[in-house]
Amino acid sequence: MRKGADVFVDKLKQAIEGEYKDYYFYKSMYDKTDDPLWRDFIQHAYEDEKSHYEMLQQLYYMMTGTFVQNPKKPIPCYNFKQCVKQALVDELDGVETYKEMLLTVPIQQAYNPIFIAMHDEMEHAIRMSTIYNSLR
Question: What angle do CA 18, 43, 16 make, to 5 degrees?
Answer without folding.
Answer: 15
